[in-house]
Amino acid sequence: PRRVVSGLQPTGTLHIGNYFGAVRRCVRLQDSGDDLMLFIADLHSLTTHQDPDSLHANTLELTAYLLASGVDPERSIMFVQSSVARHAELCWLLACLATNARLAHLPQYKEKSAKMKEVPIGLLLYPVLQAADVLVYRGTHVPVGIDQLQHLQVAAQLVRTFHHRYGRVFPTPQAILSGDGSERLRSLRDPTKKMSKSDSDPKSRILLSDPDSVIELKVRKAVTDFTPQVTFDPESRPGVSNLVMLHCLAEDKLPEEAVEEAEGLTTAQYKRVVASALCSAIRPVRERAARLLERPAVLRDVLRLGAARARVRADEVYEDVATRLGLSATV
Ligand code: ATP
Ligand code: MG
């Protein structure tokens, strides 16, 4: 089977972009028989400052939301990134093959570093750690959003460089794009931007923890345009089209079907349809997560078991890699 590797940062409650664009896709891959390794990317989250208590709380919260979304810890391996030291160890080996020029040119780095006075090296290394996350399990497939495609290209290049110098050890990881538009849901306040956890405006995103009334409010306030009809045209009408997309993802339908359903409705009326579809899709996840969060010991057990299973896989690959490089630590 394919080995799918994916990670989510514990930087705050998941929004529906993370859910439809990442979590639910992983769950569907798991359910269709892929070997899924899903980790909580706490090392990645340290590239921007995290309050230690919040980081800890966010890690447990994310665990609850992942389980609530259908991740099955028996079939899949779910764990915290920092509990498998091989991620960071392989990252160092790969960092020695990466170049500053290549990494500094990546759009996400440019975007995030532009806002900082002092740019941590970890932010530059982020894609190298991502490559390590996948390669340390010989991952074959990575479900990505459009925002991550270039990072996967960095991984592919590192694999080539590694093979050239030391021989074949890693498969080149392939991107899995969903093709349903879920890779880039847009901000509700500025549809030219993607929906993001780090956006300063909380109304720009719908959280998985939002109660129905808040979902309704945020959809009602979503920025659209001055055309009252509902059409699907992401280029010229990004705001309305984003609502159509959300409607489709919530009810597993195609844009044509959603637009047909919206015939005769104004965008204001259509927003009520979208809000109600989102409420129905998200409510069960929110309720399951709330119940799981009452049992933190169970969540910790899941993570502990997942880490133990992940370590076995990572050790095997890392030892192979270290031997090729001539490192003697394992002999
Ligand atoms: P941040 O702003 O802190 O980077 P984020 O919202 O981008 O937060 P991440 O933790 O970086 O969230 O990403 C988690 C996963 O969600 C990734 O697989 C990413 O591709 C996906 N993702 C993030 N934003 C969106 C979005 N707007 N639409 C679809 N998928 C998204
Ligand atoms: Mg992001």
UniProtKB/TrEMBL annotation:
Which InterPro entries does the entry mention?
A: aa-tRNA-synth_I_CS, aa-tRNA-synth_Ic, Rossmann-like_a/b/a_fold, Trp-tRNA-ligase, Trp-tRNA_synthetase
The subcellular location is: Mitochondrion
- MF GO annotations: ATP binding; tryptophan-tRNA ligase activity
Q: Which Gene3D superfamilies match?
A: HUPs, Tyrosyl-Transfer RNA Synthetase
**A Pfam family this protein belongs to?**
tRNA-synt_1b
Biological process (GO) annotations held by this record are:
mitochondrial tryptophanyl-tRNA aminoacylation
The record's EC number reads: 6.1.1.2
Alphabetized UniProt keyword annotations: Aminoacyl-tRNA synthetase, ATP-binding, Ligase, Nucleotide-binding, Protein biosynthesis
- Chief localization: mitochondrion
Q: Name the enzyme's class.
A: ligase
What cellular component terms from Gene Ontology apply here?
mitochondrial matrix
Region: Disordered, residue numbers: 181-204
Q: Provide the family line.
A: Belongs to the class-I aminoacyl-tRNA synthetase family.
Q: Which NCBIfam families match?
A: trpS
Report what the protein is called: tryptophan--tRNA ligase
Q: Which organism is it from?
A: Manduca sexta (Tobacco hawkmoth)
